[in-house]
């Protein structure tokens, strides 16, 4: 192992591998920030060096958030979810790179990815929702947005009892709905500030590009191509590219529209920060039949809840908890798992006590918490 002088340690510093005091004594886990009190403790014990096989990690607030909150996303099943999601992400990243480069791609590559994503959702839907909203808040790119939209779209499709065939259409279209963006200039997509009229027009061509890529280059059916083409249409007919309304819009496209909008709200963009899940859900609820099909929106809320699974909430006794289960009959009273209790004790490895707010009448949700801000407070504590 590499030797690190205690005198070189700084508060907030993080490492890619665990740091040890000796062969058996852990100083700080991988990814977690070193605290000032930890350094003072080493000095008090007259320890002059620690050991680590990894490297220092750059000071990234989002990484600090993930390191803190993923302590509680640490069961074997949850670790498998992270690994499986990471594998799908890497494959899709490669696939999107090839599409951007106009390379020839076999349908089987995409079909295999869709099949594995649907299989992952079977029995692990709650864990995947938690990972999307709890382990991935903040910066996400085109690949994560595609996967996350597909996950939520597929769950809504199942809630609406779509057939297996239509679920495959929905999931494929959801993963690929924004591939047209790969043919738009990155300078326009990542631009800070207001788009010029011509830049806005180019952005609004992306569903057409998606349709052409899916049907002309990849050889998919019209069912999948149309679902991608119509995902920016609105329930009131004010969307694009064709300004069609209501049932003229394919159901799969109406589902993708809701999922895509929600994922966009909980992800950082060049022009704004991300919303917390509760605020994003409230925004959807205020739609009033303008952008979204009310029945699809109803199913979406039933899948995620008012406080989506993975949301961080502050209870009336000042404890901080993570939502782990919602009930459609009691949307304001989910089951939660404690991260920090009312006395300030932290729970790691997902071992905090659970509270069923539908049964425990002593406490209630005071407000949803911006998890990134909470992580920053924890880092400086």
Offer a few descriptive terms:
Hypothetical protein af1432; 13 strands; 381 residues; 5-stranded antiparallel beta sheet; single chain; alpha+beta
How does this model look, in words?
The radius of gyration is 23 Å and the shape is globular. The protein starts with a strand and ends with a helix. Strand 3 (19-20) and strand 4 (26-28) form a beta hairpin. The strands form four sheets. Strands 12-11-10-9-13 form a five-stranded antiparallel β-sheet, sandwiched between helices. Strands 1-5-3-4 form a four-stranded antiparallel β-sheet, with no helix packed on it. It is α+β, with helices and mostly antiparallel strands and 381 residues long. It has helices at residues 36-44, 61-69, 76-100, 107-121, 125-135, 142-159, 164-176, 186-189, 197-203, 206-217, 222-229, 251-265, 277-285, 294-304, 371-380; strands at 2-5, 14-15, 19-20, 26-28, 49-52, 56-57, 138-139, 267-268, 312-315, 320-325, 335-340, 354-356, 365-368. Helix 10 (206-217) packs antiparallel against helix 11, helix 11 crosses helix 12 and helix 12 packs across helix 13. It folds into three domains: 2-59, no CATH class; 64-304, Hypothetical protein af1432 (Orthogonal Bundle), CATH 1.10.3210.10; 312-380, no CATH class. It contains 15 helices and 13 strands. 46% of the residues lie in helices and 12% in strands.
Q: What is the average per-residue confidence, as pLDDT, rounded to a whole number?
A: 86
CATH architectural grouping of the largest domain: Orthogonal Bundle
CATH superfamily of the largest domain: Hypothetical protein af1432
Distance between the termini: 29 Å
Low-confidence stretches: none
Largest sheet: 5 strands, antiparallel
What proportion of the residues form beta strands (DSSP E)? 5-15%
Listing every helix as H and every strand as E from the N terminus to the C terminus, the arrangement reads EEEEHEEHHHHEHHHHHHHEHHEEEEEH
| CA-atom Rg in angstroms | 23 Å
Give the number of domains: 3
The percentage helix is 40-55%
- Spatial ordering of strands, largest sheet: 12-11-10-9-13
Report the structural category: alpha+beta
Count of separate DSSP helical elements = 15
- How would you sum up the global shape? globular
Named CATH topology of the largest domain = Hypothetical protein af1432
How many strand elements?
Answer: 13
What is the class of the largest domain in the CATH system?
Mainly Alpha
